[in-house]
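Page 42, continued from yesterday. The earlier attempt failed because a stray header line got pasted into the input along with the sequence. Redoing it now with the clean sequence only.
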Amino acid sequence: MRKFTKRAAFAAVAATAALGFTAATASATTADTWTVAPGGAFTATASNPTLSVPNATLKCTSSTATGTLKTGSGNAGAAIGNIATLKFTGCSLAGINFNVTVANNLKINANSVSTTNPNQVVGSVSGVTASIADTGGMCSATFAASGGGPATMTGYYDNSTHRLVINGGNLKATSANCLGLINAGDSANFNASYLTNPNQTITKD
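This time it went through. C-alpha cells are written below.
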C-alpha cells in the first residue's frame, strides 16, 4: 500500500510538472510581441502570381494590394495587419481570360521567426475566399477552406527584401464548373511575392 502511494504521488508530481511546462510554453508563445516599422498604410505589388490546381494553372500578369500594419512595438502577432483590397490583372487559364475576385479585409498574422533565415517572419494571411470566372461564362470556380469557411494562406515576410511571400495554405476549390480543368475538392496553391511600399520591417520584440 505504501509503495502504491509513493508511486501515485510521484506520478502526480510528474504530471503536474509536465502540465506546468506545457502551460508555460503555450503562455510564452502567446505572449510573443512584434515591432513594426514604419507600419501604417501600405501598398504592395506582385508580378506573375499564379493559382495552381492539379489540372491547370491560372496565371496573372500582376496583383496589387492595399492595407495597414500596426505601428511600433508590443504588437500581438495575430491580426498584426490587414489587407483591405487585393486585385488581379491580366489573368488567364488555358488561353482564356479570367476575372478574379477576392474577399476584402484579410488578416495578416506573424507567427514566428524562421529557424533557417532570421530575416524571415513566418506567418499567414487568413479570411481568404475567392472566385474566378472567364469572360465568356464557360468556366467558374470558388475557393475557400474545406467546408466553405475562409481559408488561410501561409508564407513569410522577408525583412531583407521587404516582400510578403505566399506559397502554401489550405485553399481548395469548393465549387467548380470548368470543363474538368478545375474540380470541386481540388487543392489550390497560390504563389506570389508582394513588394511593400513603403518598405516594412517586422521583428520579434
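Notes: Confidence is low (pLDDT under 50) at residues 1-29.
Reminder to self: strip header lines before submitting.
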